[in-house]
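Repro:
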Amino acid sequence: MALTTEDMKATTGFFVDILGMPLVHAMKVPVGLGTGPNNRGNPPYEEIRHYFFDMGNDSLLAFFEIPKGAEPAANRNAIGGMQHVAFVVTEKRFYEIKQRFKDNGIDYNGPTPQLPGLIGIYFYDPNGIRMEMACQPVDAETPDVMKCNTQARAVARAEPETLTDDGAWIDSMLKNLKDE
């Protein structure tokens, strides 16, 4: 996942010190990859910072630093926008992060019940990006959110049926769910 920031120092401090996501790679995008013919989807600015943080589970969270004032703030509820980013963490990590929020005066909402057995804390990063840390306490130190929240095919089917009466399409969308 790649997000944007106007303040890489504040973003780095928040993700490393508060959320505990280690910085694992820091670079400037090479000349020509911002506005040149070799741009492969990077923001259209030359030599901007691009930092990578370890989210766990062999996944990275990246930030591109956009020049201050060059772009408007995003509307998280706009079509194509990003409503919020959610991370699943262990119960221990969940409560460690909650304590860091308290210790550092960071506003948050929660813990709030989410899906069956899943709780979350909502907060904003220094860029105004809404985020969520979630955990399933019953899983303790071995998160298994997918297994505990995956619906049976028959239960899940009711919602896609409100989109279309194309049974073949619905069946293809639900093919990985079990009958039970």
